[in-house]
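User: Structure with fe (ii) ion, tokens only please.
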Amino acid sequence: MNDGDTDPTQGGTVFAPWVLPGLQNSAFTKGFVDRILSHLKELDDSRAEARGFDKVTRLEHCLQTATLAHQAGEDEEYVVCCVIHDIGDLLAPFNHGEFAAALLEPFISEKNYWLIANHHAFQGYYYFEHIGLDKNLRDTYKGHPYFDDAITFCDKYDMPAFNPDMEYMSLDDFEPMIRRLLMAPKKSIWVPNPPQH
Ligand SMILES: [Fe+2]
Ligand SMILES: [Fe+2]
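Assistant:
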């Protein structure tokens, strides 16, 4: 049984009722963002395990994707989505897009959620044929309102981000953006009065 009145920063329960109104600024939420950053760093130790990652690591790929989006003038939410879009590559190799999208869902728009959830089908246009899959799998989504946005995500940002010669922003550069987005959930049963977009 929890006593409903302990401090989560001191190892106490996070189920204390008084924590919920301040959840967005709680030590628990800060710890969540710290764990995201920590796992992104683990993506830097994955060279040569999969096609494309023999020249750049998964972390370098994510940072290059986000740098390209940032340089193109995409907004902060979109840029953070780019940093995180392949975070599931090691933990969820068979559905890494849905994994990242589920993680980001409380914080992002319906469009960005859809882009991240389905980006692997669109990215497959560039390599599925080399592994015996249908490179045109993305065509099954034709007619979807975000189809063209997913093409843009892959063409402009995801696909060009396997460049060993590219100069790109560091995870430290993106950290303030990541913290701003992930400490402000907008859709969650634990946030009864979320700020409006
Ligand atoms: Fe991906
Ligand atoms: Fe990617």
